[in-house]
Design brief:
459 residues; alpha+beta; Beta-Lactamase; Helix Hairpins; 5-stranded mixed sheet
């Protein structure tokens, strides 16, 4: 029995004993005969009462002990503790209230933990580094990109901003704290090399009205690379457009200033104008095709097509060109190779590969092969041409990249064909590549999932 229960039990016995003594004394004074029997009777009553009350008090004390232990466990953070409810008295009501409090606290803690994890996950998916700072520049929370940007492993304990080992961050945040407003700067960070970034320190009042600061780091590298790509594309496109336009204008002016009377050369002048106009038209068509493929909202008209039949039909349209070039064209594309794809865009990719193979193969053959490997369809266009040097291979699918500038233009190439192939295939969830050796020819290929682009994540 617990000391508190023992004291309670002794207090009851003392009270009952006092009552019995008083009652015995009163009865003894009024009784005519000896009172020994009376006292023995009262003693027996006291003993019986003590024996009867003991189990009740002991049980009461045990239940109090269980309640007390559960309360201590709950206070220590054990939210799984529960008190058994075996009666319908006040102690049982206390036990139910304690259990309900533990369950409610457990639910709230789970909800808070889930919200915290979701917020942390969202922050970690941001491309920017983000850190929440106290006024003394202690880091309350920082996402993974922040530590990656500063080149430091995340500390196990709550660190100071100085742990990031980037003095420029300290300078910006201290300036923001002194000024009391946001500060943004473009600065270099040194973590595995120099990187240009934009750093912002913004005041963020929290729920307790204690001022905090939000520090963000955004890498300027991707933005500047995109800007450089845009500038390069505009420059290349302008150059490619200017070349045929210059020829057209020049020969047109020649015809206007006496060339029409030059019977020996005027037909040649007109033929040159027509050739350059065709080249200009092809370049514009390729630019429009590439712009269509690169649109963020580009959609595919997906249907089930026999890829073998589509390939044979397309390659047959190149037979006359191949014959004029002295080449043989071989096709290995069995029927029944069903693929869910956008036929128009897939034909655009295949047409560019076959056209390139015929243009850049001086003698020999061009072979087109279609095969199924599990859930993937693979198309290969091989040739017996001169091959491509290894240093050119990584850049072949870039816009306007040419291995041989002069030869490509003389053959009517726009420099956009392989880029169109890459984007058309990527829209289908596939990949494109090339295998080539100098003097042994080249094999350009692409692979797409048979079930369409949505089947990539499902397979």
């Amino acid at each position: 029995m617990r000391p508190s229960s023992r004291r309670f039990y002794l207090s009851i016995l003392t009270l009952i004993a006092a009552v019995l003594v008083v009652a015995g004394t009163v009865i003894d004074r009024g009784a005519p005969g000896p009172a020994l029997g009376l006292w023995l009777f009262l003693t027996a009553i006291f003993a019986a009462f003590a024996a009867a009350v003991y189990p009740l008090v002991a049980g009461f004390g045990g239940r109090l002990r269980v309640l007390e232990d559960a309360a201590h466990a709950l206070a220590a953070g054990d939210l799984d503790v529960r008190v058994p409810v075996e009666a319908h008295d006040d102690l049982a009501g206390m036990a139910r209230a304690l259990n309900e409090s533990a369950a409610r606290e457990s639910r709230e803690r789970r909800d808070l933990g889930r919200e915290r994890d979701e917020a942390a996950a969202a922050l970690n998916f941001l491309p920017q580094g983000v850190a929440l700072l106290a006024r003394d520049l202690t880091i309350r929370h920082a996402n993974a990109p922040f530590w990656t940007a500063v080149g430091v492993e995340p500390p196990s304990k709550t660190p100071h901003l100085s742990a990031a080992r980037q003095p420029v961050l300290m300078e910006i945040c201290e300036e923001a704290v002194r000024a009391g407003h946001a500060v943004t700067r473009e600065v270099p960070l040194y973590a595995e090399g120099r990187r240009e970034v934009i750093v912002s320190a913004l005041p963020v009042p929290d729920a307790m009205h204690a001022e905090g600061w939000l520090l963000t780091i955004e890498d300027l590298g991707p933005e500047r690379r995109a800007a450089e790509i845009r500038r390069e594309f505009v420059a290349n496109a302008s150059h490619e457009l200017k070349t045929p336009l210059t020829s057209i204008r020049g020969y047109a002016e020649t015809l206007l200033h006496g060339g029409l009377s030059d019977e020996e050369h005027r037909e040649q002048f007109v033929e040159t104008i027509r050739t350059q106009a065709e080249r200009l038209e092809g370049l514009v068509d390729d630019l429009l095709s590439l712009a269509d493929l690169e649109r963020p909202d580009a959609e595919l008209d997906l249907r089930d097509w026999d890829l073998g039949g589509v390939t044979r039909e397309l390659v047959s349209s190149f037979e006359d060109l191949a014959t004029r070039c002295g080449l043989t064209v071989e096709v290995d594309a069995p029927s029944g190779l069903w693929v869910r794809c956008d036929r128009k865009r897939l034909e655009l990719a295949l047409r560019n590969l076959v056209d390139n193979a015929i243009k850049y193969t001086e003698a020999g053959w061009v072979r087109v092969t279609v095969a199924i490997h599990g859930t993937t369809a693979r198309v290969e266009v091989s040739d017996s041409g001169r091959g491509i040097s290894p240093e050119h291979v990584p850049r072949l699918f870039e816009r306007f990249y040419r291995v041989d500038q002069g030869r490509s233009r003389s053959l009517g190439g726009t420099g956009l064909g392989l880029s169109i192939v890459k984007h058309a295939v990527q829209l289908h969830g596939g990949t494109a590549g090339v295998e080539s050796r100098v003097g042994e020819g080249s094999t350009f290929w692409f692979e797409i999932p048979r079930g369409g682009p949505d089947s990539v994540t499902d397979s």
